[in-house]
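Look over both lines:
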Amino acid sequence: MPSNDPEQTIDFTVDRNNLYREESFTDVKVAAIRRLTPVKSDGSDDESRDSIFMAQTQLMSPSGPVVLQSVLDAKTLEEAMERFPKAMQKEMEKVASEDKKKE
């Protein structure tokens, strides 16, 4: 049942100063790279901010799929592709380390 308590409501206001246009690139095997290009509230490019590159891949484990993702320190798609393998390896090691702690 919805609550009228202001402390339990969710603020769905769009942050008009933090908008991005999203583009996806994939090799249809392992790599998924998203480029988030900053835009102004009218949809035009916001050249005062840098694009963000995100890496993502999925591995199968006995427990099911494991999603690995990371922000890539890249300025171009070419740099993002070059840094993808190392970023995913680092995320995989982090997940493996967390799994060992649970045992």
The longest strand covers residues 52-61.
